[in-house]
Amino acid sequence: MSRRRDPVGLPGGVYALALVGAGLILLPLAALVTRVDWPNFWPLVTSEASRAAFLLSVKTSGTATCLCVLLGIPMALVLARARFPGQSVVRALVLLPLVLPPVVGGLALLYTFGRRGLLGRHLEVMGLRIAFSTTAVVLAQTFVALPFLVLSLEGALRMLPRHYEEVAATLGAGRWAMLWHITLPLVLPGLTSGLVLSFARALGEFGATLTFAGSLQGVTRTLPLEIYLERESDPDAAVALSLILVAVALAVVGLATRRATANSDPGD
After folding, report:
1. Any alpha helices (H) in 114-183, and if so which ranges?
2. Which of 50, 61, 137, 179 could hold 203 in an S-S bridge, CB 3.0 to 4.6 Å?
3. How far is CA 156 from CA 89, 182, 197, 214, in A?
4. Which pLDDT value is given to residue 12?
């Protein structure tokens, strides 16, 4: 008996182009792995400068992710549930860092919080200096990572049926009670995905951090900045540290993808 061809299957050309696209992503990563100095890998990634950069990156990225949660949840709720004039413009501005070159974001932050910036000159009078400090690293990472959480959570909120909240309201639940006990738990998968992606984006941030915070070891030199500096002086260390970032990013993206797949699969 001849095998019937799937009438709604994909054309062969689609698979070919998909294979080319996969190669464009995977081949550079494979090339990076082949350049690693494996016998000296551990000493390269555990040097004092490397450890300081890695620990600073994890600390600042974690703090930036907390800020994304604190600020992103209200922003997503307003964009998804409220109606006000100019809402589409506000949404576009909130998501602008997704497409804005990071160095431009760094300049914008510098002219806002720098010594002569819009707010920075007033903070300077109070003895608060933000630019070229660890706080500047956190702000730069938050600036570029926040839209990821807002976009993910807003999409989850828009797909959430309102009848659960309507029933809770008829039973006398207040707005804060509905938010904490009904709305947020129901969109937890979207919130978790946004949180994970925000952390990954903050961890890999480079341009805005360099422009706004500089590169001072132990203070503002994150792992991407350390890789950039080592690229000229010690290429082997740069490659080894790059592999660490790739591994962390792969784990983070894998976690987010796994959660999204699990929540979209009715069999799980």
Report:
1. 120-125, 134-159, 163-170, 175-178
2. 61
3. 20, 13, 15, 37
4. 79
**Contact of 195 with 254, CB cutoff 8 Å:** no
238 is written with which tokens? 């740069």
Query: What token pair was written down for 133?
Result: 């400090």
Distances (CA, A) of 190 to 68, 92, 155, 173: 14, 20, 8, 24
% of the chain with per-residue pLDDT over 90: 53
Write out the two tokens for 192: 């978790």
Q: What is the pLDDT of residues 119-129, one digit of tens each?
A: 989 988 888 88
Q: Is residue 267's pLDDT more than 50?
A: no
Residues in the chain: 268
According to the CATH classification, is domain 58-263 in 1.10.3720.10?
A: yes
Domain boundary assignment for the chain: 58-263
pLDDT for position 175: 80
Question: Is the distance from CB of 212 to CB of 136 less than 8 angstroms?
Answer: yes
Tokens of 173: 């639940």
Does residue 7 have a pLDDT over 70?
A: no
Q: At what angle do helices 12-34 and 235-264 cross, to 10 degrees?
A: 140
- Output the six-digit token pair for 134: 């660890």
Task: Write the DSSP symbol of residue 5.
Answer: P
